[in-house]
Amino acid sequence: MKPLMDLIFASEKRMNLLLILYDGRKEITALTESLDTTRTALLPQMKILNEKHLIRRVDDSYELTTLGKLIVDRMLPLTEMATLLSCEWDYLGTHYLDFIPPDLLRRIDELGECYVVETTLPELFDVNEEMLQKARESKFYYEVTSSIHPHFGKIFSELTAEGVNISLIISRSLHEKLIKDNREEFQAILGNSGITLYVYPGSFEFISFTLADHTILLRLLTQEGYYDNKQIMFAKGNAHQWGEEFFEYYKARSERIR
């Protein structure tokens, strides 16, 4: 198996060639353009793949063999995962991710593009306006959180007035804090028909998760358990489906407050 792995992954050109041919037969000119290379540079790589029965020539075109298709079927999940993780490798590698249910963690590549948002000290308690706009457009806002914005009552009231349905899961400690320090605002959101509120019996191993439209915003703890001033956003891909499953996982373990 190792020689075959070396054959594919030791050459970025060979790997990309297989991935391009997965979409179907291509002429040599189209391949050189896609790979930004010359015919002279590409032909030796194609000869290697052809000798290993992963591609075959049809006139002046090339296509994957049955074996080639089997190999690329197995390659795609790995390349998709690598693409996702490479976008913000340092952030994901230094922050705690084990709170994600195992099935969803294996499918984290479904989240699509990602980028880190770094807030300055004066912006630390600002609302993420991009997420609020997504909520206004999609008319729903899901959040699982152990912290809440100081003006949460006003923000949620404005969103529901615009027709946004809010589903909120809070930690037990945050629930107790709101009852003690923000009872009036807390009672107001409980009485708001546009807000569904749940309490999780324990604590979260992250700061917050937010879903609106096809965008997810995560505020994570570092591997050492600290919070920094960075947030990571995922967009496109299957972020909506993944996010709904994440929310349902915590909802199923929470108690609704009426």
Q: What do you see in this structure?
A:
This protein is an alpha+beta fold and 258 residues long. The protein folds into two domains: 2-79, Arc Repressor Mutant, subunit A; 88-257, Endonuclease, Chain A, CATH 3.30.870. Helix content is 47%, strand content 21%. The chain is built from twelve helices and eleven strands. The chain has helices at residues 2-9, 12-21, 28-34, 39-51, 66-87, 89-94, 102-106, 129-138, 152-161, 172-181, 183-190, 239-251; strands at residues 26-27, 55-58, 61-64, 113-118, 140-145, 165-171, 195-200, 208-212, 215-219, 230-235, 255-257. The strands form two sheets. Strands 4-10-9-8-5-6-7-11 form an eight-stranded mixed beta sheet, with helices on both faces. A three-stranded antiparallel beta sheet has the order 1-3-2. A hairpin with a 2-residue loop joins strand 8 and strand 9. Helix 9 (152-161) runs parallel beside helix 11 (183-190) and helix 10 packs across helix 11. The radius of gyration is 24 Å and the shape is elongated. It starts with a helix and ends with a strand. The relative contact order is 0.12. The model has no long low-confidence stretch (mean pLDDT 88).
